[in-house]
């Protein structure tokens, strides 16, 4: 017998008032918006409809060059409350850009929703004399991220990038050993930029004249390569963001030999091939010399930052 009189306890149709139902198109549009913001894009229509704004960064990845700055920025951008500035802006380290003023800088920022935070990265900031004071003048309570790798490895990575640039232009270049070691004294050549950049404590000490140490967060760039999630969770906490980046968002790509990013079921990406170059072999005695040279500076860096690494 058909029971015509009985109604379902909770008829599906009555769960939403018709006017409360969100059309599928809108949902797709919203997903599209987040996706476009994460890619650093937004259409004029999206800007108008969602009151999107260009906000000054509330956190900056100030360095260190070849520490994994791009990977860190892209991985943080997985967080729904983070919007990245795709390009390195070089506002604070480049006098010509700095003279263009803060509105020029803001104009270089991506569109975002008001509750989101914008992050930019320009690794040259860490080593450029004038930058700490300039950033302080913009926002004295800004959060500063520094990603570091074992200093000798970082120096070789730095060299490899320059070498590749020279080779692309069919130019010859010195061997790493000849740049890193002074032929006259047989000591480490502190005039070589790749060596100087790896003396992290020297640069950090300049920053500490303006910002308290609590405003910095040190990211382990070596661990970001092998096991990125715990490093990203530490950054989420530092930025006072709810923990949203999960293992789902990061998958190891055996062909690339690195973790790649999964935004959703359809959108994933690995970093460009210029990230993760094969380093040249370096004479082991030079490696040891460099490691010994960096050792006392590393100790000081651990002491100041409160973060210790297993560097030699
Ligand atoms: P190598 O090219 O020496 O391997 P930066 O973005 O600051 O220039 O740093 C580049 C480094 O990021 C690369 O150095 C690479 O090792 C590291 N890196 C960290 N995570 C990565 C990832 N998921 N994909 C590619 N490179 C990554």
TrEMBL record:
Bilayer disposition of the protein: Single-pass type II membrane protein
Main location: Golgi
Active-site residue numbers: 66
EC number: 2.8.2.-
Enzyme class, spelled out: transferase
Compartments where found: Golgi apparatus membrane
GO cellular component: Golgi membrane
Name of the protein: Sulfotransferase
Lineage of origin: Eukaryota, Metazoa, Chordata, Craniata, Vertebrata
């Amino acid at each position: 017998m058909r029971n015509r009189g009985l109604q379902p306890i909770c008829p599906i149709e009555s769960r939403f008032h018709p006017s409360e139902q969100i059309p599928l198109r809108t949902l797709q549009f919203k997903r599209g918006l987040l996706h476009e913001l994460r890619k650093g894009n937004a259409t004029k229509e999206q800007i108008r409809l969602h009151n999107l704004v260009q906000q000054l960064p509330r956190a900056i990845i100030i360095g260190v060059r070849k520490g994994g700055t791009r990977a860190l920025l892209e991985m943080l951008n997985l967080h729904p409350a983070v919007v990245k500035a795709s390009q390195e802006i070089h506002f604070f380290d480049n006098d010509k850009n700095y003279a263009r003023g803060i509105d020029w800088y803001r104009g270089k920022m991506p569109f975002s929703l008001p509750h989101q935070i914008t992050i930019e990265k320009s690794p040259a900031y860490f080593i450029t004399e004038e930058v700490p004071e300039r950033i302080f003048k913009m926002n004295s309570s800004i959060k500063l991220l520094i990603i570091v790798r074992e200093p000798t490895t970082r120096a070789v990575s730095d060299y490899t990038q320059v070498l590749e640039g020279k080779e692309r232009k069919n130019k010859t270049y010195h061997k790493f050993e000849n740049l890193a070691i002074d032929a006259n004294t047989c000591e480490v050549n502190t005039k070589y930029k790749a060596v100087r950049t790896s003396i992290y404590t020297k640069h950090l000490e300049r920053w500490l004249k303006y910002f308290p140490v609590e405003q910095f967060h040190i990211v382990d760039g070596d661990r970001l390569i092998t096991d990125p999630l715990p490093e990203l969770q530490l950054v989420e906490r530092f930025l006072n963001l709810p923990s949203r980046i999960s293992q789902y968002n990061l998958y190891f790509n055996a062909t690339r030999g690195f973790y790649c990013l999964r935004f959703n079921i359809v959108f994933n990406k690995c970093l460009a091939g210029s990230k993760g170059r094969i380093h040249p072999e370096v004479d082991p005695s030079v490696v040891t010399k460099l490691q010994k040279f960096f050792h006392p500076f590393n100790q000081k860096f651990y002491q100041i930052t409160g973060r210790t690494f297993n560097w030699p």
